Amino acid sequence: MVNVKVEFLGGLDIIFEKQRTHKVNVKRDGEQEVTVGMLIDYIVLNMIKNPKDKDVFIENDTIRPGILTLINDTDWELEGEKDYVLEDGDIVSFTSTLHGG
């Protein structure tokens, strides 16, 4: 099991019961490493309560454009995106850059 902190910022907390920070435990299957892709699947399946809100977070099986994703304060594109292997204590932040107005 890998224990990580997940943050939903820039208004994304609205679809996560208005809670910005979550401690998440993602289980491993046997010897398999836990990746950010597995974390995203976990978030979609277990943390988004309203099915209509999934489209706010996910598009084409990845994080929706307009959501900045950071792993330990580094852009996930530099870390391998969904293939990044999570370790205990990692912080994964999702920040919406899209603002109404």
What does this structure look like?
- The protein is α+β, with helices and mostly antiparallel strands and 101 residues long.
- It has one domain: Roll (Ubiquitin-like (UB roll)), CATH 3.10.20.30.
- Helix content is 20%, strand content 31%.
- The chain is built from 3 helices and 7 strands.
- It has helices at residues 36-47, 54-57, 76-79; strands spanning 2-9, 21-26, 58-59, 62-63, 67-71, 74-75, 91-96.
- The strands form 2 sheets. It has a 5-stranded mixed sheet. Strands 3-4 form a two-stranded antiparallel ribbon.
- A hairpin with a 2-residue loop joins strand 5 and strand 6 (74-75).
- The protein is globular, with a radius of gyration of 13 Å.
- The N and C termini lie far apart (41 Å).
- The mean pLDDT is 92.
In short:
The protein has helices spanning 36-47, 54-57, 76-79, and strands at 2-9, 21-26, 58-59, 62-63, 67-71, 74-75, 91-96. With 101 residues, the chain is α+β, with helices and mostly antiparallel strands.
- Highest-level CATH class: Alpha Beta
- Determine Rg (CA atoms, Å): 13 Å
CATH topology-level name: Ubiquitin-like (UB roll)
| Overall structural domain count | 1
Q: Overall pLDDT, averaged?
A: 92
SSE topology string: EEHHEEEEHE
For the largest sheet, list the strands in their spatial order.
Answer: 2-1-7-5-6
Instruction: Give the count of helical stretches.
Output: 3
Q: What is the helix content?
A: 10-25%
Biggest beta sheet summary: 5 strands, mixed
CATH architecture: Roll
Structural class determined from secondary elements: alpha+beta
Strand content: 25-35%
Termini separation: 41 Å
Fourth-level CATH superfamily: Beta-grasp domain
- Report the count of strand segments: 7
- Overall, the morphology is globular
Low-confidence stretches: none
Subcellular location: Cytoplasm
Modified residues (1-thioglycine): 101
Keywords: Cytoplasm, Isopeptide bond, tRNA processing, Ubl conjugation pathway
Family: Belongs to the URM1 family.
